[in-house]
Amino acid sequence: MNEDNSNNDWNIHVKYWGTSGSISSPLKPSCVTQKVIDSICTLIKGGHLIDIDPSNLESSVAKMVHDHLPFSSKSTFGGNTSCVEINTDDCLIVIDCGTGIMNFGNSLESKWNAIQKDERKGLILFSHMHYDHLFGLPMCQSFYDANNSFDLYGSEKVAANLIEFFGQNSDMANSIYPPILSKIKAIKKITPFKENSELVIGATTITHFTLNHPGGANAYKIECKGKSYVYASDHEQLTETDTGFANFAKNADAIYMDGQYLLSEYLGHSGIGSGLPTKRIGWGHSPMEWCLLTAFAANAKSLHLGHRDPNRSDIETENILAYLKGHAVELSKSNQQNCPEILFPHEELDFFI
Q: Is residue 183 scored above 90 in pLDDT?
């Protein structure tokens, strides 16, 4: 379970295309400028500029940046909303159609065209129909190619909404988008997940779990050859440890969980970024510390915290990660239990299970 597939020994390949919550949040130009300034200052203070080889300039600078700069200075976690690509030997699965799906579609078309793939099929799983998980749908180039075939899945409520959404006279769709949905040729079927049902494709099994979120939402578990990945965005835990969800995700190799807030932010004791303290109970999202407790209860090997608050900077996210890793070590000692790996997945991150 890692971010390197050099030995190609994996059963589930997860790629993140959007992990920001609520609304897309691209970097402001001033933030990009500050990253450049911070990076140059760090390299000068560390005396690393002497490592530059003028005869091999680009590669030596790339190595210097890789070796000596923190992630928050040299990159970004990204500002696109929810979209995760999952590949097994049996199928391509995409969960949610937030703004990240545009980059997914561009990548997929390039890949499929390059290898002249004959069977161009995929599944789209919707957690729910809130705008930040839906907005990117008409921006995915793969959906306009008649050679492609995608089946959409969601709860019975979501499936009914999607059927209405794609209807020729949908007031809902026409009020949001220009009249382009009729040009989408690759979406072939919309199917509801009934209660306690599962979808089996070869050695891959997909199951679902109902989450606590205004209007409802689904978590999904993808299992293949003894490995498992769980996606649970937009979920507000009602207790510090969500035992019901932990049982659903038991022994997962990786769990992606909605951890939009720190506990102090959730309770209204502190603000996010420069914002005022606001109690966020009932908003449909969980504090990270509670996600960590649930990951321990599930005996998960890796916890991926997503649906990041759009007001949170990269450096704040990096600092919170350090805090959570320390907190996890303390919990591991007190519980006498293995500590899950913790990460905030950034856009374009590949994770292999």
A: no
